[in-house]
Specification:
The protein starts with a strand and ends in a 7-residue tail after the last helix. The chain is mainly α and 322 residues long. The protein contains 11 helices and 2 strands; from the N terminus they run ββααααααααααα. A two-stranded antiparallel ribbon has the order 1-2. This is FAR-17a/AIG1-like protein.
Length: 322
């Protein structure tokens, strides 16, 4: 199986070579790939897919991410202040999955925006050099950003929206921001950038997070006396209907994950086929790809490297015999 090569230090290291240490090392490297991480001896995200775009420059992508991150931060701070001062119920702010997922979206946009800005201005990608644990959590956070906003939007407008949703200017703005724009921002991140499909092994982690939220919801009821969402109230819904809602949301997360995975994979293939050869490489990309090879320029090789990177995306999440 032809796999992409990653560059580190003074030359190329093939993934097959990295697995040459034996069966045990091969299993470890296979697991790392399934988690969206680089095998031992190779560089994380060697083609810089997490900080580049096929449609806009790296600098523009950085500003877009930082602008969206700034908007989500302002929304969170203003909403928390309003709920605490005006309505007096700020204690329950962090009990809502809507707010928790929005915090995750805000955190990802800031983290990705700063990484992209540094890469655009200095030609280095800091996350590639950071500990593997931080790389794992970045990829996992990306998986939640790709799916949780869509689930939140679907559940809110299907089960929770009411005539009071747009009752006041503040209510209208708040609900549009956290129940519509959250999905818009997630889709921008998915389709404006070169980010690859989410690793399949992150799906169980996402489902476990949703299950863990049930604990938060019922602890909130025990300590503060209210249910964050009416469909979680067993007295109103009954045990059968309550179980149906819980299982339905978990299944919905799996369906959304699969759909988003397919759409992002389709984007990757379309960009690979119709767009990547038309877009010139940025100076940072050329410098990064040529570093360690001793090459000047090399547009043809750079194009080949991009194609290898796209092929590497398809390897993530695909089981492989060891």
């Amino acid at each position: 199986m032809g796999l992409a090569h990653a560059h580190q230090g003074g030359g190329e290291i093939g993934i097959d070579e990295a697995e040459a240490g034996g069966t045990g090392g091969g299993r470890v490297n296979c697991m790392l790939r399934q988690l969206g991480l680089a095998p031992k001896g190779t560089r994380f995200d060697s083609t810089c897919t997490y900080v580049t775009s096929p449609f806009v420059s790296t600098g523009t992508l950085a500003y877009v991410r930082l602008f969206l991150g700034f908007y989500t931060l302002i929304t969170l701070v203003f909403t928390l202040a309003w709920d605490s001062i005006r309505d007096g119920d700020g204690d329950g702010f962090f009990s809502y999955f809507t707010h928790l997922s929005y915090i995750g979206l805000c955190a990802y946009l800031w983290a990705a925006g700063v990484q992209t800005y540094v890469y655009a201005t200095r030609g280095v990608y800091l996350l590639q050099r950071w500990p593997r644990a931080l790389q794992y959590f970045h990829v996992l956070l990306y998986a939640t950003v790709a799916t949780f906003p869509i689930v939140v939007t679907a559940v809110f407008w299907a089960l929770l929206a009411s005539p009071n949703t747009f009752k006041s200017t503040y209510s209208a703005w708040s609900n549009i921001s956290v129940h519509i724009l959250n999905t818009v921002f997630a889709l921008i991140e998915l389709f404006l950038t070169n980010v690859p499909p989410m690793p399949w092994l992150h799906l169980p982690a996402c489902v476990l997070m949703l299950a863990g939220y049930l604990g938060v919801a019922y602890i909130t009821h025990k300590t503060q006396g209210f249910y964050t969402y009416s469909f979680l109230d067993p007295a109103k819904q009954g045990p059968g209907k309550l179980a149906g809602y819980i299982v339905g949301i978990a299944v919905g997360e799996c369906v959304v994950y699969a759909i988003v995975y397919g759409l992002v994979l389709a984007k990757v293939k379309l960009v690979q086929r119709y767009w990547c050869c038309l877009m010139p490489a940025s100076p940072q990309q050329t410098q990064h790809l040529n570093r360690g090879r001793g090459e000047e320029g090399g547009d043809t090789r750079e194009s080949e490297e991009r194609k290898e990177g796209f092929e590497e995306w398809e390897e993530v999440g695909r089981p492989e015999r060891v």
